[in-house]
Design a protein that fits this description.
Layout: H1 2-40, E1 44-49, H2 53-65, E2 71-76, H3 78-87, E3 93-97, H4 98-107, E4 113-126, H5 139-148, E5 152-155, H6 162-173, H7 177-181, E6 184-187, H8 190-198, E7 204-208, H9 209-215, E8 220-223, E9 231-239, H10 244-253, H11 256-260, E10 267-268
Parallel strand pairs: 1-2, 1-3, 5-6, 5-7
Antiparallel strand pairs: 3-9, 4-7, 4-8, 4-9, 4-10
Signal peptide: 1-41
Pfam families: SBP_bac_11
Protein name: Substrate-binding domain-containing protein
């Protein structure tokens, strides 16, 4: 009887041992899988111009929903985004005007990286919802509208705002710089420019049409009249040694499916 008990115990020991081994292997496999998923789903941090805010937010949501990892987006002017990206060693990528990316590469501020054009934004003007929309269809009417507006919201050119800097050239060419600048209310970026317009603290807003549409399509007045129209290519730059998650995000951002959706955000897809 004692021998039977010993054998029974030994058999039970082997039985339990086999199951413990299987359980250990399962846990190890799960841990390895989680580790691989964590590697591919690394957290990303992008600094971007506010002109591409709407499409980048949508792309980030789609990326996170697919298990690609968490994406932090920090928006600023084109110049502000570049400065903040360069100051943050933990940043994953920069999205700003293609002109700025090329200039930074030529100056050595951006090195050993890859660049992909996302799309083009168009500069334009906005009015508060329900306000009378003045004619800006040609240079003369644009000049009259700018002179008639009591308050004009503008993204700060000194902070590298693309449309803000362009606007200074427009009013200079129209010969109304001094008269207009007396009425300008500066905003840190296009998002805040539109906030001033929506809240009725500005009668005209000058920013990217993409920023106008993402705030309120009813506020759109229209693009700058020729020859003062402005289209700006925006590009994504990431270091050559970017992690797999960042490369996957860039592939999604430049995919045919995403580019086909850009027009709804007020951007032109790359040609």
């Amino acid at each position: 009887m004692r021998r039977w008990r010993v054998r029974a115990f030994a058999g039970a020991h082997r039985f339990i041992g086999v199951h413990v081994l299987h359980a250990w292997r399962a846990c190890a496999a799960l841990a390895l899988c989680c580790a691989m998923q964590h590697t591919l789903a690394a957290d990303l941090k992008l600094y971007a111009a506010a002109g591409v805010k709407a499409p980048l937010e949508r792309i980030a949501r789609d990326f996170e929903a697919s298990g690609g990892g968490h994406v932090t987006l920090v928006f600023d002017t084109a110049g502000g985004a570049e400065e903040r990206f360069l100051a943050d060693r933990g940043a994953s990528a920069l999205v700003t005007s293609a002109v700025r990316v090329h200039a930074a590469q030529d100056a050595g501020r951006l090195r050993d990286g890859a660049t992909a054009v996302i799309g083009a934004t168009v500069g334009g003007l906005a009015v508060p919802r329900g306000a009378v929309k003045p004619d800006i269809s040609d240079a003369r009417h644009l000049r009259d509208a700018l002179l008639a507006a009591p308050r004009i919201a503008l993204s700060d050119p000194a902070r590298g705002a693309t449309v803000g800097r362009h606007f200074l050239g427009v009013i200079e060419a129209l010969g109304i710089r001094d008269a207009v600048m007396k009425k300008v209310v500066l905003a840190p970026n296009g998002v805040e420019t539109m906030r001033l317009v929506e809240e009725g603290r500005a009668d005209l807003g000058v920013t990217q049409i993409s920023e106008i549409l993402q705030a309120d399509p009813a506020c759109l007045l229209g693009p700058f009249a020729a020859p003062y129209d402005l289209a700006t290519d925006y590009a994504l730059w990431m270091p050559a040694d970017a992690p797999a998650a960042m490369r996957a995000f860039a592939a999604l951002a430049t995919s045919p499916a995403e580019r086909a959706r850009l027009r709804a955000d007020g951007l032109r897809p790359p040609e």
